[in-house]
Every structure is written in C-alpha cells, then in structure tokens.
Amino acid sequence: MIISIDGVREMFELDQGIADQLTEVSLNSSVQVRCGNSNSFMVTASTLIPLLQMFEMKGVYISASRGAAEVIQAFESVGIDVSQIQFIDLVSSGILGGTNVPYNNVHFVDSPIMLESILLRTLYILQTNQSERNFVFVDSVNALAIYNDDRMLAEYLHTFINTFRQQDVLSVILNVPDQTPPLVLSNLDLYCTDLVDRGQVVIH
User: Which helix (H) or strand (E) holds 134?
Assistant: First the structure.
C-alpha cells in the first residue's frame, strides 16, 4: 500500500509497509534498513515520517553520505518537518565553507573516521533534547565503510547499537547491501533486532 504526504501527493509517495513494520518495534530495538541507491530517499523518508508523526519521537540523524544541509533541503522539499531532528554532519567539515549552514540543528564532526566522537556527540545531543522517546538514524553504513576499516566499523556498530539499546533509544541503521562489506553486513544481521528490506531497485 502506498500513501502520500499531505499537500505533496504528486511529488512524493511513501512506503506504508515500513510504517506498519515500525509499529512492531520497541524503543530499545535496533532496525537495519536495507535499500538501493535508487530508492534510498524514499525509504529514508518512509522510515522517518512514522517516527516523527505517528510515534512523536525526537531524533539524531547522522549523515555520512552527504552534507546535512542537503539532506534537510531534500526533506523540506517534500514537506517533511525536521525541526525535531538534530543532524550530525560528517562530511561538510572538509569542504571550504561547508560548515556555514543556515540551520541551528546541525552539528559537525570533522571526519567519518572519528567514530568515537560521533558516538559521544550523539549521546550528548540526546541528553540535552529533553525527550523520553528518541531515535538515532545512521545514513549510511556503506558511506562509513568508505572511510573505515571493515573490522573496526563492525565493532563500532556493535558498540553503537548496544549503547543506545541500554538507554531505550531506537537505532535505525541504513545501508545499501551491495556496497556494504560482507563482514559489516553479516554483523548487522547479528546485532540488529529487526530488518526492513527494500533491497536494490533495478531500473530497466
């Protein structure tokens, strides 16, 4: 079943099945979300909207695939209110003028290899947002894998997931399977409690 965002019906359609799956998870769950390059934005939006609107959660969005300002603009262009999300941008610090953004909900970590800093910054933001229902969204594992050793990344994700599970924070881990190292992918299968699989969409 497909639904559309109110007011932008012609622009964008959501995957209702993802919302249905999310109703089955608890706050201390960890959800692996698999997508393809061609449908990653639709899958991401279809995951975030239920968290923000149905479950009235606040969250942290870790952006390793592109700059946070670009992500925010993409969401706003289809009518998604991201005011309840704090963004951690891992890529713009290395770009001249990349940290000069017109948003007060964007934070910067200097590099995607600074995994411990990403975790600590996320924990700090969650402690200051004064919400009892929180999520952390990682976009994306395959982007982090470009910069980090496979085994180190796999161990980090284990620590990351367990840290937030103990704090009753829902973790959502986005990845493109055919661009994610096999070791990391197999460990995500082991660590995560739930799977949303929208795979690779092949366009003919």
Answer: strand 134-139
